[in-house]
Design a protein that fits this description.
The protein has about 70 residues and is mainly α. About 60% of the residues lie in helices and about 0% in strands. It contains 3 helices and no strands.
Length: about 70
């Protein structure tokens, strides 16, 4: 059985791990398009990923600082 990222994160946290689950947001999913192997989507996907990373940087930094 394959668990969702949220379920995997919850299981790790329950075992004592520090966890920040990050999955593609709506902007990233839109940038990927329907075909994740479409090479023409690389630049928009990279830009969306960079924007999403900025939104999560503080939370991830807090995990590393602990």
């Amino acid at each position: 059985m394959i668990l969702s990222p949220a379920a995997q994160g919850a299981a790790l946290a329950a075992a004592g791990a520090r966890v920040e689950v990050i999955t593609p947001d709506a902007g990233s999913r839109k940038a990927f398009g329907r075909n994740p192997l479409d090479r023409t989507r690389r630049v928009p996907a990279a830009r969306a990923g960079r924007a999403q990373a900025a939104a999560h940087a503080r939370a991830v930094a807090a995990l590393w600082a602990q």
